[in-house]
Amino acid sequence: AQSVTQLGSHVSVSEGALVLLRCNYSSSVPPYLFWYVQYPNQGLQLLLKYTSAATLVKGINGFEAEFKTRETSFHLTKPSAHMSDAAEYFCAVSQNTGFQKLVFGTGTRLLVSP
Amino acid sequence: SQTIHQWPATLVQPVGSPLSLECTVEGTSNPNLYWYRQAAGRGLQLLFYSVGIGQISSEVPQNLSASRPQDRQFILSSKKLLLSDSGFYLCAWSVPTGSNSPLHFGNGTRLTVT
């Protein structure tokens, strides 16, 4: 079965610094991968998705992620952090069951300091 | 455009009391519907999913049940709540075809069982 692992439950950066949130996947077939963001007491919002087209995927709010087969990774990056980026981020993989069934990582909380 | 509504936003219930959380989707037909639970520090756990009216699949054995009485309505229930049922419950929908379509989440219900 497909799974994802997010390294680091918390990541702290300064405003203006590079954001790097790590996600590694395990899948026996080419995966569909997603990044979601969750602000406090809200649902999850889709940031971006990889569906076997371009390996570099651009999302909303200046985020992007690169799919790397050899490293089995799908890390999320943003060149310059903003205070409003402080939130929890989830990586997810589709189970490829013929309909959408996502398995989520445990999440990484991004803290942004001034 | 499609929208998803979840209510109530917060709920405090005593142990042993019943539960009913409701979720409705607008602007789409025959969506796949999902209930997830988010416990602190544990990511998201898929509880139930449904591909059509009256069709419910349970992912984990538990004290909860789900029903889909109408195409765009999904209900999460319990006859007697346990302390361990506390958590953040998220409803989501996706288009009915394809493993590469994203999930769209409601704003969640914070349930506290006392």
Classify the secondary structure makeup of chain A into a structural class: mainly beta
Largest interface, per-chain counts? A-B, 28 and 28 residues
Give the overall shape of chain A, derived from the CA principal axes: globular
Tell me, rounded to a whole number, the average pLDDT of chain A. Answer: 91
Strand content of chain A: over 45%
Low-confidence stretches of chain A: none
Specify the biggest β-sheet of chain B: 7 strands, mixed
Number of helices of chain A: 0
What is the rounded distance between the termini of chain A?
A: 41 Å
Structural summary, described in words:
The complex is a heterodimer of chains A (114) and B (114). In chain A, strand 6 (56-58) and strand 7 form a beta hairpin. Chain A is mainly beta. In chain A, strands 2, 4, 5, 9, 10 and 11 form a six-stranded mixed beta sheet that branches. Chain A has strands spanning 3-7, 10-14, 19-26, 33-38, 44-50, 56-58, 64-68, 73-78, 87-94, 102-104, 108-113. Chain A contains no helices and eleven strands. The mean pLDDT of chain A is 91. With 114 residues, chain B is mainly β. In chain B, 0% of the residues lie in helices and 56% in strands. In chain B, the strands form two sheets. In chain B, strands 2, 4, 5, 6, 9, 10 and 11 form a seven-stranded mixed beta sheet that branches. Chain B has a four-stranded antiparallel beta sheet with strand order 1-3-8-7, with no helix packed on it. In chain B, strand 7 and strand 8 form a beta hairpin. The relative contact order of chain B is 0.33. Chains A and B meet through strand 5 and strand 10 of A and strand 5, strand 9 and strand 10 of B.
